[in-house]
Design goal:
alpha+beta; Glutaredoxin; 10% strand
């Protein structure tokens, strides 16, 4: 699970530096060895995270583009503007609801209980129930690789 704060400059660097996510995706996700699950860990403001939660609920295929928009990808912003009116209305209704805000806060609370205290934070489930590996704050691509390999080999 990758915990991010969308107003965090370090998270922007992590998400836009291909040596981090691309290597994880190619080596583990695309091979089917692991799954990458995005989680929210907002700082002072949760508005960006609430928007993403609502996009995920009502237009899941647009989630990755929306995430990249919030991290500064201009091309993704152009693509996101192509969402239909129906999806835009549903997303706006969701942003005004309490449930999206509660879900975002719950994700942060769970991350905190698991040891995340800075972003980006990553939690890698081990094969043993209740056992996991984690890093809080930006680590090197080699450290992420080491954590994932450690969790996979038990």
């Amino acid at each position: 699970m990758l915990y991010q704060d969308y107003s965090c400059e370090t998270c922007r660097r992590f998400a836009t530096n291909s040596s981090y996510l691309d290597s994880i995706r190619k080596k583990y996700v695309e091979s089917g060895t692991a799954r990458l699950i995005w989680k929210f860990y907002p700082g002072d403001s949760i508005e960006d995270e609430v928007l993403l939660e609502c996009v995920h609920r009502h237009s899941p295929e647009s989630f990755d583009r929306s995430r990249r928009v919030l991290l500064g990808d201009d091309q993704a912003a152009e693509n996101l503007n192509s969402l239909g009116v129906y999806e835009q209305i549903r997303i706006q209704e969701c942003r005004n609801s309490r449930s999206a805000r509660q879900d975002v806060r719950l994700q942060k609370n769970i991350g905190s209980r698991l040891g995340i205290n800075r972003t980006p934070g990553m939690i890698i489930d081990d094969k043993e129930p209740g056992s996991y590996w984690y890093t809080s704050g930006l680590a090197t691509p080699q450290k992420y690789d080491e954590l994932i390999r450690g969790a996979l080999t038990g």
